[in-house]
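Sequence, please.
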């Protein structure tokens, strides 16, 4: 995090970025987990799907995606006519690396009747092998659209898949993958945070482990957590169980409330690689262009669009879903995007 080139002040870098942005007819998008100065610089801040939808709708010719590779890929898949730039070439996602297209094909061979539901935190190649994508906000709704007679393979976050299975009471074939940042959060850390800040509610992301989620007052995506925080009365305090970057936006949008990290270790190193200097270089040198070969993009787009076109109406052939277990935060996670 921070500015690598100490010769140029942050103020000057921001001026240069804004002038390059105009010249390139660019828009800057930043994920909720990006460093605060990048969030403040961006035209739009949000989760991966919100940003991809903005990327698809924007009239800008160039999209600077301050996030990790799979997000840039999703934007490139949805907006093939635009130039998508990822300021840091090495910014990947460990969770996305847990699944390869070959592994998904193998799994499909083992379960030929299964529907593959893939978390957007995955490579374009893996999306291309999938029937439908989901985010942490719509995973439950998407699972509910799947005909009850079809097994579900959920790629690639075990914890999110487990959570979706619990809420929908569906049997789901889970993938052995996780986000190492969210998986770091322990029950011990949450209990310690509760003792430290008595009276504070605990809100958590469903990428956290099942035993840890049991301790939450609310479980939701980053956008779900932002909505939930807004609904709380002035003076409320909340312990936040997700990547630490979300606290910046939570605090900015809710100055009358207090937010604490559930643990100081909830830091995604990949998300924290972006600096103002990277963004300036990205616009100046038009680097690093994210491309997805059209034969892969076409199939991946179908899986992403299957999710985007979901309107909340179960298919006619699908019997009504059994009533979901009343889980904390369930109503929030079943709407919106990650
Ligand atoms: S926080 Fe986890 S899921 Fe998100 S980019 Fe980092 S490693 Fe991937």
């Amino acid at each position: 995090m921070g500015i690598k080139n100490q010769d140029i002040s942050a103020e000057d870098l921001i001026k240069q970025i804004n002038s390059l942005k105009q010249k390139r007819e660019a828009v800057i998008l930043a994920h909720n987990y990006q460093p605060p100065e990048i969030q403040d610089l961006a035209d739009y801040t949000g989760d991966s799907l919100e940003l991809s939808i903005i990327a698809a709708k924007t009239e800008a010719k160039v999209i600077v995606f301050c996030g990790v590779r799979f997000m840039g890929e999703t934007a490139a898949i949805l907006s093939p006519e635009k130039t998508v730039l990822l300021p840091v070439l090495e910014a990947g996602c460990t969770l996305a690396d847990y699944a390869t297209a070959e592994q998904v094909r193998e799994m499909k061979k083992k379960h030929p009747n299964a529907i593959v539901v893939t978390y957007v935190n995955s490579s374009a190649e893996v999306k291309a092998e999938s029937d439908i994508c989901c985010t942490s906000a719509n995973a439950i709704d998407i699972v509910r659209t799947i005909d009850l007679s079809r097994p579900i393979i959920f790629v690639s976050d075990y914890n999110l898949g487990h959570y979706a299975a619990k809420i929908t009471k569906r049997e789901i074939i889970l993938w052995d993958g996780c986000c190492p940042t969210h998986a770091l959060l322990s029950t011990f850390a949450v209990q310690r945070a509760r003792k430290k800040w008595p009276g504070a509610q605990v809100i958590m992301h469903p990428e956290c482990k099942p035993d840890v989620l049991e301790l939450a007052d609310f479980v939701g995506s980053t956008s779900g957590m932002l909505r939930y925080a807004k609904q709380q009365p002035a003076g409320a305090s909340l312990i936040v169980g997700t990547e630490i970057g979300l606290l910046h936006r939570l605090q900015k949008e809710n100055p009358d409330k207090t937010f604490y990290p559930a643990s100081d270790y909830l830091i995604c190193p990949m998300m924290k690689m972006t600096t103002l200097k990277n963004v300036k270089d990205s616009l100046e040198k038009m680097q690093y262009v994210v491309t997805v070969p059209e034969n892969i993009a076409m199939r991946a787009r179908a899986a992403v669009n299957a999710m985007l076109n979901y309107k909340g109406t179960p298919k006619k052939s699908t019997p009504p879903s059994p009533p979901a277990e009343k889980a904390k935060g369930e109503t929030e996670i079943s709407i919106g995007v990650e």
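The first strand starts at residue 26 and ends at 31.
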